[in-house]
Amino acid sequence: MAEGSRHQWHTGRQIVMACMCLVYLALLIGGLFASDGRLGGWNPDASFWIFTASAGLNFLYVGVIVFGVASLVRPVGAQLFGWVLFILFTGLTAYGAASVITGNEGDMLNIGTANVVVYALTAVFGFLEGVGGRRGLRRVRASYTPMEDL
């Protein structure tokens, strides 16, 4: 494969990952102001713009941001991170959808409709990163030498 196409794949993945990290950073900042430190439970007042917030979701967002930035720095872990995103956010999408359909009865994470949409998009991105990262991961490994980090 040509050197230029490898660089385009890697750069495109990094741009999408950086945008995803920025979205979750915005959700985290908004959630910090809106959640008032409550750990969970349905609270319609804990919302900002069209999103709902809770401290539990804020912990999740911190993890997504930290591991997302780490996969930007070290692309070798991007495929694994993609599968983790897919599994985690598929579960959150199902939980959030069930919560929204039942009227948020017993919702411990305070997940709203807008959150479910973002989580579903993140699950799709994670799947594409996990599957599409396989080819790109081999390319990165083949061209990666540990001395490049120094």
Automatic annotation (TrEMBL):
The portions of this protein that span the membrane are: 15-34, 46-73, 80-102, 108-131
Q: Does the keyword Transmembrane apply?
A: yes
* Key words, A-Z: Membrane, Transmembrane, Transmembrane helix
What is the protein name given in its UniProt record? Answer: Uncharacterized protein
